Model the fold of this input.
Amino acid sequence: MLNTCLKRVFNIMGKPEQNLQMRQGLLAAAGEVFAEHGFAKATVRAICDRAGANVAAINYYFRDKEGLYREAIKQWSEISRQKYPADFGLGANPTAEQRLGAFIRSFLFQIFDKSRPGWHGKLLTREMVEPTGALDELVESAYRPLNERLRQIIQELGGGRLNQTAVRLCARSILGQCLYYRHAGQVIARLDPGETFAPADVERLAAHVTRFSLAAIQALAKQGTRAAVVR
Done:
């Protein structure tokens, strides 16, 4: 005989709207709890209490806590990429310079997106510091394709005069510039009180990072691969 919890879950089967609402509620609650406590310390009970659901719902929708965790990371990563794709605002036949600018602009807008849940960035940061199997999936589905795209742009900008080591380091330097504003936000606020990151500010920041990066890539390419390599 089914217990009360299972009955409540099975009662919504066949009702798409209720299914979607409960599933999304669990994902949102899970994102918050995982971001606050990490995967290991987060409990199914705490997630269900926050979502107003019963424990059986997690087994029904996600199989287990790990399945819920992986789905929470995957879903919100996909939403960010769909909202701000790497070819953000590009027209037909863009140049390598334009593609680099679009890539940086997309990345920065994802970082400063005020409309996304507040736990999103914190959850992804925690996953990188305390990695689980979900990080491997995230790298393959999102980070590796973006990384390859950026490296291809840099290779083209270098005119073939940068070897793979130089290209790899340039890519990391570009991403590092962007991520600094994410991870050092509290430091920036103290160093330069009043600085904001509204959409217009992000546009200006993207233009600066693009100009700075283009100048560096072009300078390294002029020096040749021997000067561009750091071992």
